[in-house]
Task: inverse folding
């Protein structure tokens, strides 16, 4: 069983919020069970035809009414107080918090760090240090929501809003737009990267580029995300595209009836000129990347795709679900990609949207 | 029978050849120009059922689409229009009018011993205005749809969305007037047209809840009408009210919208409370425990319901202090709801419980509403709401209240009053089985969504490929939805087949107490031969049993009493 039932706790608020949450869960379970037990017991005991004492039925009972008004009232006030305390804590950022600026726009998150480093749909933060996000929207309402940190606040046009947190655990976490903002609302998502403070400092100093050298596979994963491959090539075969999990070394059936072993050459051909040999059952959906990609990027991609090998991990929550989330990254752009994107529209269109959707974002510039 | 000075049996002519409200006239004209509250109720029943079916088709498409993290059949644009249409149709064209306009219309006058509502023509007009709204909304959906969600948050709805927002909000504007007319009609009728002897504290609890609902309709609906009109003005005339680029304030819209839309939740759930009180009393054959507390808790909910709208806006950038106050009041409104649940449960103590179809719905309601109400505390509570707001936790919570509450109440009422409305009994075995199917299917559909919400799945998301860990719960939910769908479609078949094959229902097939059971099934056009005079207390089953004992009846003698 590897079906998570809670988001990872990764900020200073997580334990505070979860305490109230589980307190309320207990309250809910106890009261529901209480009502359920009484309803069932009465329904059985007093069902028509049973010979039980029904004499002197009670119709009004003031002490009982007061008891079951006052007990929920007191329990409610306790929960109110705990919840309000957590909320006041969330709304009062410490004076020494590191400031990061967030601009929401249809349909991307644009982040600026104080030293000028900018990134899109990625938010790098140090752990152990309070971070304050000052946020504004360029168009409609958005909401910055980081479940692992238990924080959320609306991003409003025409006024600055704020949220703060202290990340407590390194890792990558989801970042969602949680206020419906139009056609591609569900693609206004990204990743929060919580880093050790010295790594964050190095990352900032290096202009937002990854400091540690990456393996070919990691570079390939990044390229896979930036190019938007994951929009169609998901964890399982869809009508748009086959999954790439476990494809390396497999025998593939082609549209013309022939069979091909998916080796490096075939994968390369499928990227640069996918319609030379199209897999059976698929239409001409994929863009042609001939002369669009450098040979080293293609090599990185092949390394990544080969790394997906092995039995197909069930996206339905198999043992590797978490990893799938990381590897089959959404169209997220890392720092340098984003900066490039600012000045380089063709790259940006690949980065922010699915390949077969119009790039509406460009119209707003 | 003891309610009127003359016994119920004497009210009916010995051979039941009287014309009833259904067969008194047969022309289409006689239906479309009727002033009879019972016929208007039937017109409403067809109308809300039609829109419920349409809303249900949208719901099925949503559940189908979310099986896969990257969608299975829709584009994002279409998906957004479908969830918006689902919300708009279900809320404005089904849930708000459902119980008041169908069962309130039909039974409120009969339950208080009146011949009709105070303003029969206004009642008919409310149905036409409802359809005017319904047609405008439908044409908006057909001509391209809206993609704003049912909440129409600005500035997206006013300046950014390129869909049929104007048409649809004008439709909602009209649908709102239909509920204002219904509410006004009910309030005047309850105040002025009670039969002799029908004092306020002899009113069945359904009438109390209709009264509370009507007050909310009358006070709340104008605000949504004005708000949507302002959105319309901003869209068409660029009158700056809500959009910062025109000098407006987008958060103002949320205040105005929720000032109606939170009380609107009570418009949808209070009528169900009334239905459940009727069912608990009549199927336990016992006066509802704490009648006065249950009656006044409806009014308390209606009143406090106007003071909690800000709990939808804890993270909207309203002031922190506002958030604290709204949270506190929201916790207070939980108390009268809890009181109701405890009183219903206590009603069963020492009752003579008949586990027939309507009762199964009532028991299901108590279970689902308890969960729905308690999970509301998670959202009234500031700290947890920050994490849960606008996630699937909210979706699950309000479906537990709206479907588990209002929908179960509607189905309970439909089964309970079906023999009175049509004169035919349906198959009780089918009914009971179906009620359990709805209960189970409902839980399978919506319980996994609580977990999804806690994990952070945002509502209104078409794709969730970034977080495939959500997928198993979506699959569970969609599987449950297919069971629920069967449970919601089946009554259409066995109820309609009962019209042809069902046993004839007598005046009082459930052995229930109340004036509506003292006239024929279906009732005569004027409801009663002559105005009844009420002499007994509400839900006074002991008096009723004594009467039956004296006059003989095929009902069984009062149970229990001696050990």
Result:
């Amino acid at each position: 069983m590897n079906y998570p039932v809670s988001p990872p706790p990764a900020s200073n608020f997580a334990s505070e919020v979860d305490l109230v949450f589980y307190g309320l869960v207990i309250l809910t379970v106890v009261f529901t069970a209480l009502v359920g037990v009484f309803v069932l017991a009465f329904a059985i005991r007093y069902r028509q035809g049973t010979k039980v004492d029904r004499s002197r039925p009670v119709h009004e009972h003031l002490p009982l009414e007061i008891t079951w008004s006052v007990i929920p009232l007191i329990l409610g006030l306790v929960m109110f107080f705990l919840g309000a305390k957590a909320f006041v804590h969330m709304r009062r950022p410490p004076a020494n918090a590191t400031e990061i600026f967030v601009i929401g726009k249809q349909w991307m998150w644009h982040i600026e760090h104080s030293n000028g480093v900018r990134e899109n749909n990625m938010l790098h933060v140090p752990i152990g240090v309070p971070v304050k996000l000052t946020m504004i929207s360029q168009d409609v309402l958005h909401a910055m929501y980081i479940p692992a940190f238990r924080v959320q606040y609306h991003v409003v046009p025409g006024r600055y809003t704020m949220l703060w947190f202290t990340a407590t655990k390194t890792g990558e976490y989801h970042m969602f737009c949680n206020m419906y903002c139009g056609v591609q609302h569900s693609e206004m998502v990204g990743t929060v990267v919580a880093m050790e403070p010295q790594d964050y400092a190095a990352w900032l100093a290096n202009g937002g580029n990854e400091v540690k050298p990456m393996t070919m596979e990691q570079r390939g994963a990044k390229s896979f995300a930036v190019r938007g491959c994951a929009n169609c090539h998901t964890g399982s075969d869809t009508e748009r595209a086959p999954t790439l999990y476990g494809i390396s070394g497999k025998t593939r059936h082609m549209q013309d009836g022939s069979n091909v072993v998916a080796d490096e050459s075939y994968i390369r051909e499928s990227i640069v000129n996918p319609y030379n040999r199209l897999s059976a059952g698929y239409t001409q959906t994929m863009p042609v990347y001939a002369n669009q990609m450098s040979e080293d990027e293609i090599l990185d991609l092949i390394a990544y795709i080969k790394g997906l090998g092995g039995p197909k991990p069930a996206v339905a929550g198999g043992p590797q679900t978490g990893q799938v989330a990381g590897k089959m990254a959404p169209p997220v752009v890392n720092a340098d990609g984003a900066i490039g994107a600012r000045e380089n529209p063709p790259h940006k269109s690949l980065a922010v949207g699915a390949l077969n959707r119009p790039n509406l974002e460009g119209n707003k510039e | 029978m003891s309610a009127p000075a003359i016994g119920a049996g004497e009210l009916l002519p010995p051979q039941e050849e009287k014309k009833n409200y259904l067969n008194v006239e047969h022309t289409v004209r006689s239906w479309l120009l009727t002033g009879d509250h019972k016929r208007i109720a039937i017109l409403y029943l067809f109308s809300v059922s039609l829109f419920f079916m349409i809303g249900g088709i949208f719901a099925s498409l949503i559940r189908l689409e979310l099986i896969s993290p990257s969608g299975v059949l829709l584009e994002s644009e279409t998906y957004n229009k479908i969830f918006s249409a689902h919300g708009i149709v279900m809320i404005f064209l089904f849930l708000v009018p459902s119980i008041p306009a169908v069962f309130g219309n039909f039974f409120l006058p009969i339950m208080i011993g009146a011949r009709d509502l105070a303003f029969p023509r206004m009642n008919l007009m409310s149905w036409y205005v409802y359809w005017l709204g319904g047609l405008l909304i439908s044409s908006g959906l057909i001509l391209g749809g809206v993609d704003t969600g049912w909440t129409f948050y600005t500035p997206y709805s006013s300046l950014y969305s390129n869909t049929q927002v104007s048409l649809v909000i004008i439709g909602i504007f009209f649908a709102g007037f239909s509920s204002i007319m219904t509410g006004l009609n009910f309030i005047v009728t309850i105040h002025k047209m009670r039969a002799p002897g029908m004092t306020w504290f002899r009113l069945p609890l359904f009438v109390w809840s209709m009264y509370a609902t009507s007050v909310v309709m009358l006070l709340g609906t104008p605000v949504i009408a004005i708000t949507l009109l302002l959105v319309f003005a901003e869209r068409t005339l660029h009158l700056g009210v809500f959009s910062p680029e025109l000098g407006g304030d987008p958060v103002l819209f949320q205040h105005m919208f929720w000032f109606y839309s939170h009380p609107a939740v009570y418009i949808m759930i209070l009528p169900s409370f009334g239905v459940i009180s009727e069912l608990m009393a009549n199927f336990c054959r016992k006066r509802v425990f704490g009648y006065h507390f249950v009656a006044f808790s409806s009014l308390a909910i209606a009143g406090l319901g106007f003071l909690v709208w800000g709990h939808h806006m804890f993270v909207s950038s309203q002031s922190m202090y506002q958030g604290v106050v709204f949270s506190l009041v929201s916790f207070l409104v939980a108390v009268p709801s809890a009181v109701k649940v405890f009183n219903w449960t206590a009603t069963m103590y020492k009752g003579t419980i008949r586990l027939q179809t309507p009762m199964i719905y009532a028991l299901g309601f108590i279970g689902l509403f308890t969960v729905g109400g308690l999970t509301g505390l998670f959202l009234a509570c500031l700290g947890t709401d920050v994490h849960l707001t606008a996630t699937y936790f909210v979706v699950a919570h309000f479906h537990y209240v709206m479907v588990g509450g209002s929908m179960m109440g509607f189905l309970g009422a439909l089964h309970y009053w079906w023999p009175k409305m049509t004169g035919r009994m349906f198959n009780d075995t089918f009914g009971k089985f179906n009620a359990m199917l709805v209960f189970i299917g409902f839980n399978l559909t919506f319980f996994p969504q609580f977990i999804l919400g806690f994990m952070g799945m945002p509502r209104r998301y078409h794709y969730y490929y970034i977080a495939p860990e959500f997928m198993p719960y979506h699959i569970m939910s969609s599987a449950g939805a297919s069971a629920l769908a069967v449970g919601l479609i089946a009554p259409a078949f066995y109820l309609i087949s009962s019209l042809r094959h069902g046993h004839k229902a007598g005046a009082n097939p459930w052995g229930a107490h109340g004036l509506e059971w003292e006239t024929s099934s279906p009732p005569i056009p004027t409801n009663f031969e002559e105005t009844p005079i009420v002499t007994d207390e509400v839900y006074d089953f002991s008096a009723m049993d004594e009467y039956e004992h004296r006059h003989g009846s095929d009902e069984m003698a009062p149970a229990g009493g001696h050990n």
In short: The two ends of chain A are 47 Å apart (CA to CA). Residues 311-365 of chain A have pLDDT under 50 and may be disordered. Chain A touches chain B through 103 residues (CB under 8 Å).
